[in-house]
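Could you show me just one protein sequence together with its fold in token form as a worked example?
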Amino acid sequence: MKRKNVVMLSLGEITRVGLCKAFMNQPKLLLLDEATTSVDTTIAHEVREVLVRAQR
């Protein structure tokens, strides 16, 4: 049997990876639709803070 390294991410982890990818290129415009839906409240608060700082 072949060995396979499989990494299963939770929905919240997938969301965080997507947000990180979105910010990597420092876009001038970023469209987000329910960006914090699948993350816990602590992470959601941190994401909101980052978005507010990015607007400045």
Observations:
- The helical segments are 11-24, 41-55.
- The first helix runs from residue 11 to 24.
- The chain has a mean pLDDT of 84.
